[in-house]
Amino acid sequence: MFEWTVSARDGSARAGELVTPHGVLQTPVFAPVGTQATVKAITPAQLNELGAQLVLANTYHLFLRPGESLVAEMGGLHEFMQWPGPILTDSGGFQVFSLAGTRKIDADGVTFKSHIDGSMRRLTPEISVGIQEQLGADIIMAFDECAIPTDQAYAAEAMQRTHSWAIRSLGAKKRNDQALFGIVQGGIFRDLREESARFISTLGFQGFAIGGLSVGESKSDMYQTIEVVNAVLPEDKPRYLMGVGTPEDLIEGVLRGVDIFDCVLPTRLARHGAALTRFGRINLLNATFAHDPQPIDSDCQCYTCQHFSRAYLRHLINAKEMLAATLLSLHNLHSLLQTARELRAAIQSGQVQQYAETALNRLHSKNKPEVFL
Amino acid sequence: MFEWTVSARDGSARAGELVTPHGVLQTPVFAPVGTQATVKAITPAQLNELGAQLVLANTYHLFLRPGESLVAEMGGLHEFMQWPGPILTDSGGFQVFSLAGTRKIDADGVTFKSHIDGSMRRLTPEISVGIQEQLGADIIMAFDECAIPTDQAYAAEAMQRTHSWAIRSLGAKKRNDQALFGIVQGGIFRDLREESARFISTLGFQGFAIGGLSVGESKSDMYQTIEVVNAVLPEDKPRYLMGVGTPEDLIEGVLRGVDIFDCVLPTRLARHGAALTRFGRINLLNATFAHDPQPIDSDCQCYTCQHFSRAYLRHLINAKEMLAATLLSLHNLHSLLQTARELRAAIQSGQVQQYAETALNRLHSKNKPEVFL
Predict the structure, then answer these.
(1) How much is the pLDDT for B61?
(2) A326, B326: Cβ pair inside 8 Å?
(3) Is A70 in Cβ contact with B315 (below 8 Å)?
């Protein structure tokens, strides 16, 4: 179980296969986020039609509601949310540390206030792993601390705690049918990131994640940090870049050796009326689309683009119709899933540099076709 | 076009086929409501999987937003909302007359305040038919006045206006690829309903609707009124009971010779967490369902019941997830569509009385199985 094969390489980019109890992940892979045990506004059947392989669910949210014991009682997350493929749960760390002012960190763990009922709750490495074992995802994450990436003293302190919690997370693990991934922290500081990657690499995790990125640092800091970390991480384990997911970041991450991604971006943008295209984002509420009979992106093969006009989508958004979120989520998720599939094919044919250059040039183009303005 | 065949009879109940430019309706038929050119929270692909045949859209809403000329510019309603099957639009009358206090009725039409931008707008029989011709549904409705059904003086006055507007609606019609249905009014008063049905029958409409029911009158008044009207309406035209749609009312209507139904009930209940079952409604937010691993209705073949537990649905509602509305809408729509299909089969096999008795006994049962309490 959890056998990891790199089946093709192109520069630092890898195409691989990760065997999980619920199917084989073909990487690079993008995971739609199902925070509360549902990818918002999308049925599992639709997710499946999109070709999604892996879904992420959030331990923090499910811990608070409906509670991990209910999920376990209902047969675990796969059964509960009816996603038969691989699932990954995070550790809850990221959400808890985002609750500035309402959480208290100590060496043992974190105490925080529930955003649902205001009750005081606690997460430690042992509690987090215990919850994730109850939820029953295929891939679970060590409990870590995500520091503000540009504050060096805090980044060092958070990294130390992350290391001690990594050991405790490993020690708490009981189930053999789940892979536990370790998380590298260290902000945007090369020394810290190298130290963290070296330390975490030695602990016997079944995969490695780069945490604490895409949280306010510059793009160049982010890409450099990925390079620094991946230069240290072992080649023979999968690498997961947490919470990252613009089309550009997917491409830049893959070029630097990342295998797994997740992000709320495609579904969150969808709920705000924005759509990803080959030429960047467009906001469908824009008046220029009011009479536009064209699909979001004429090159796109998704259900939304095969059927609906921008004028119709704009009408749905204007009229506050739920279908707007569904149709835009289908399109935006398709964009990222398709990009990951194309990256895999490009790696397999040794053309990932060309593919990336063409796609990035289009995304960053200053001479976009008028229809994408 | 619009050929109507009654292919089976069982008592007053009829099974028929209505040929429209976008397909043949097999009646009895229940039409999901797509008020703003979308059945809320459902894609056209999902509607098609449900076996929906006919969709209703509201002239009042589309007149105000996005406007009938935009819909026409985008190729008409079928193209705009990507529903390839038959569509029916109402006349806007019902919505306008529901705006008590903000609308002014005269002999020529109605002036009212838009609920969207507060602007003053006007509908007359000619304007309503003109809008409906722009929208391009297969079946369109005469502009009528829906009175409070229990106020006899007002019901008589509204009926007279409805009759004069029926003649004007017919006179305003230009397109040959749309069927125009006339509407019978008259509240709950036998004399008025008989007079109205006789008058409307003489005008050359391609089908007839019973308006002004399910708006506050008792069930027995409603059922009796249907009987009174259908005894007068010609056998050789389809009959449409407007805005009616509980499972009970569907059955009672079919027994009394109704062919077409529409109602927002299944999708509206869904958005409030309520589900239709063989044994009546259940509210999934009820704490008794918190740990319930069973589907809404173990006999139901819909996507929701084939996959999801009540516990999961309750979690989605609790967490205010959009998927709750989608999954419950799929189930509730399936319930009514399936009831219509079963009624058709029962009529064809001469067993509609038995079918109705069994179904109504179950719905009204005082000894429901515990799981449906």
Answers:
(1) 97
(2) yes
(3) yes
If asked whether residues B202 and B70 sit together in one domain, one would say yes
> Per-residue confidence at B271, pLDDT binned at 50, 70, 90?
very high
Encoding tokens for residue B239?
Answer: 């009959």
Q: Are A150 and A216 in contact (CB under 8 A)?
A: yes
Q: B228 with B295, same domain?
A: no
Q: Which of A236, A261, A235 has its CA nearest to residue A250?
A: A261
User: Could you tell me the pTM of the whole model?
Assistant: 0.98
The SS3 of residue B300 is coil
> B182: closest CA among B156, B206, B147?
B206
Q: Are residues A250 and A181 in the same domain?
A: yes
Smallest Cβ distance to A291: which of B70, B81, B293? B70
Instruction: Tell me which of B232, B263, B294 is where a domain ends.
Output: B263
Same domain membership, residue A288 and residue A234: no
Structural domain containing residue B278: 270-372
| B298–A contact, CB cutoff 8 A | no
B64 touches chain A (CB under 8 A): no
In chain A, what's the furthest Cα-to-Cα distance?
Answer: 60
Q: How confident is the prediction for chain A on average, in pLDDT?
A: 96
A311–B70 C-beta distance less than 8 A = yes
CB pairs under 8 A between A and B: 106
> Which residues in chain A have their CB less than 8 angstroms from residue B327's CB?
43
- The ipTM is 0.98
Task: Give the B window 331-360 contacts with A, CB below 8 Å.
Answer: none
Considering the domain architecture, whether residues B249 and B330 belong to the same structural domain is answered as no
- In 3D space, the residue among A236, A129, A241, A133 whose CA is nearest the CA of residue A184 turns out to be A241
Is the model more confident about A1 or about B307?
Answer: B307
DSSP B215: S
Q: How far is B63 from chain A (nearest CA, A)?
A: 13
Q: What is the pLDDT of residue A97?
A: 84
Closest residue, chain A, to B309 (C-alpha): A80
Please report the pLDDT score of residue B195 as a whole number: 98
Q: Which of residues 302-321 of A touch B (CB under 8 A)?
A: 303, 307-309, 311-312, 315-316, 318-319, 321
Domain end point (choices B206, B236, B263): B263
Nearby residues of A347 by Cβ (< 8 Å), 6 or more positions away: A8, A9, A10, A13, A14, A15, A28, A254
Q: Are residues A129 and A26 in the same domain?
A: yes
| Per annotation, catalytic residue among A90, A144, A259, A297 | A90
Is B75 near chain A, with CB under 8 Å? yes
The CA distance from A325 to the nearest CA of chain B, in Å, is 9
Find the CATH number of the domain harbouring A248.
3.20.20.105
Q: List pLDDT tens digits, range A303-356.
A: 999 999 999 999 999 999 999 999 999 999 999 999 999 999 999 999 999 999
Interface of A with B in 40-59 (CB under 8 A): 40-45
**Average pLDDT along chain B:** 96
Q: Percentage of chain A with pLDDT > 70?
A: 99
| A90 labelled catalytic | yes
Is B90 annotated in the active site? yes
Number of domains in chain A: 2
Using the Cα atoms of residue A335, residue A337, residue A339 and residue A342 in order, give the sign of their dihedral: negative
Give me the residue from B73, B309, B321 closest to A40, CB to CB: B321
Quick one: B280 and B207 in the same domain?
no
> Is A36 within 8 Å of B82 when comparing Cβ atoms?
no
Q: Is the dihedral of CA B183, B189, B190, B195 positive or negative?
A: negative
Angular region, A206: left φ>0, alpha ψ -120 to 50, beta rest: alpha
The shortest CB-CB distance from A318 to any of B65, B318, B321 is to B65
Let me know: does A89 contact A58? Beta carbons within 8 Å.
Answer: yes
Both A100 and A47 in one domain: the answer is yes
CA–CA gap between residue A291 and residue B329 (Å, rounded): 30
What pLDDT, on the 0 to 100 scale, is given for residue A98? 82
Q: Look at residue A154 in the predicted model and tell me its pLDDT.
A: 93
